[in-house]
Structures are given as C-alpha cells and as structure tokens.
Write a structure and sequence with these properties.
single chain, mainly alpha, two-stranded antiparallel sheet
Length: about 325
Amino acid sequence: MLKQVQNIRRNHFSMTINYNENSATRAFNPASCEKAPSFLYFSIIYSAAEVVMKSNKTFKYVMYVTLVHCLTYFICGVFFSNVLRYSWWWQQPVVCDYFRDFGGTANALGPFVQIIRGLLFAFVLLPFREFFKGRKYGWLFMWLLFLGIGIIGPMSSAPSSIEGMVYSKLPLAFHFVGWPEIMIQTLLFCILVCRYINRIEEKKSIFQNPLLLGALLSIGAFFVYTIVSIIFAIVQKVEINTERAELKNMLQFFLPVILVFVMAIIQKPKLIFRTLILYAGSVLIFALYQGLVLKDMNLIYDFAAPVLPALVYYWVGLMREKSYLKSEKSDTIEE
C-alpha cells in the first residue's frame, strides 16, 4: 500500500502540490484536483502527515493551533454559556429534543473533542499558511472563511446557519443565541493563529521562556485532569453533570495546575527530582483536598491522575535542556 501511495504521489503530485523546501510547506491547488483520481486525496493526507513529522516548525504550528483552539473554545464557552443562559435554552421545546442534556456527559467530553477539532483545523489550514503570511489583514480573511463557510453557510442545516433557519424546527431566536460565542471564539482563534504565522523569528526558543512554557503546561495539565476525571466517572458509572459542578470540586484541579506552573519556572534541583516532586505533590494535594474538603477520598484516582502530567513535564524538561545546550553551542560558534 505504501509503495502504491508513493507511486501515486510521484505521478500526480506535480499537478496538485507545489513543494517549498525552504519553508517546509506545500501550496495546494484545488482546481487541479478535479482531474485527479479519487484516491489522490488519501495521498495528500498521507503527505501532509509526513511533512508534520519531518518538519519541526510544522509540528510546533500544529500543536500551537490545537492549543489555541482548545483555549479560546473553553474560555468563550464558559463565559457565554453563563451570560446567555444556555441551560435555559436547552430546556425549551424542540431544542431539548435536538441537543443532548446540558451539563451531561457530552458537555464533559468537550475538552477531548476540542483536541481532535483543533488538530483538524491545523491540518486543514496547513497548505494555506503562505497565503495568510505577510498579509496585514490575513486574520480577517481567515475569519471570513470560518464565518461564511463554517458558521453562516455550511453544507448542512446546522443551528445558527441560513439553512438551519429555513429547514429546521428550532426556534428562530435560538439560532442567534449561539452567534456571539462562535463568532468571537473564531475571531480570537484567527487573530492568534495569524499572529503566530507572521511572528518574527526569535532566537530564543519557547523552551527558554519559563513563564510561557509554564502557562502552556498548566493549560495542558488542566485538560488532562479533566479527561482523567471523566474516564473515572464513566468507569465507576457516576452521573456526570457539569451544570451542577461546584467551585470546591473544581479547586482540586486548580491547585495541582498551579504546582505545574511553579515547577515549570524553577530549574533546580535536577529534572528527575523536580518531576518526582511534581508527582508526589500532586498526589498529596488531591488526597488532602478530597479528604479534608470533599470528604470523599479516592486513592486510585489520586495516584493515577498526576501520572500523565508528570511524564509530559519530564519530556518537556528534556526538550528544554537540549534547547539550552543548542543555544550555548551556537553562541560559542558565533564568538
């Protein structure tokens, strides 16, 4: 199968992809695809994934776009769901039959689903980076694409779309309730992504910026803890209701996240000891908080939840050490 794909790429990519070895990007020509065989699309996806794995800059771009989507989605979702009273709208006739229960398991799975959507957006926008690069209003062009194709005029009768207003039985007012969230979220997404695409190349790596690295690790740790909690709830057959989630329950996640941020800033003692301190401290925080505040301790969860954040912290720490060594060597060569 691999040989067949490689042969297809050699024979047909000349009319669909323009290689740019310097930027590790490929300019896509949609018009030429009309004459290409159907299985050519598989080879395009295969080629895009290959570029991501081989190009460090492309990998960072994909990770950044995914993170930006998850972050903007989470912030806008929390804000507008409370301001516009989504819980009330979800209980209205027709709407309650169209959507799953507000605050249920589907809502709780949101962080994991957004990671998949973020990766999808990153890969879809990958061939068009050169178009947005260097343009003063590139963010506006990208946002208009989301607005026209993804929000107002999609190919399905989705809520908040033109066809949704015409063909669905959802109340007309409901279609406009979702506009503020999705428009502002996509606007922030486009601004941040285009700013990253057009950023000036800096000698200082992200691994050498403790505050930014700590913020990224903290956000990632929060999503990991959320997903682990959902998995434990599903396994134990506990009813999930995010609408009734109390602040004291959420604080058990914020304290370990703060610990991740603090451990990302400091650089002593050695990495392995910092990782062990992070893991042991997170376990202790979960155990004490659940025992003293929530009065419901789950030792299996307390020991299992911090494993993945600790492993990610150790891996990022190794990358940071390599970055510092590389920077020192380059400084030595320049001198």
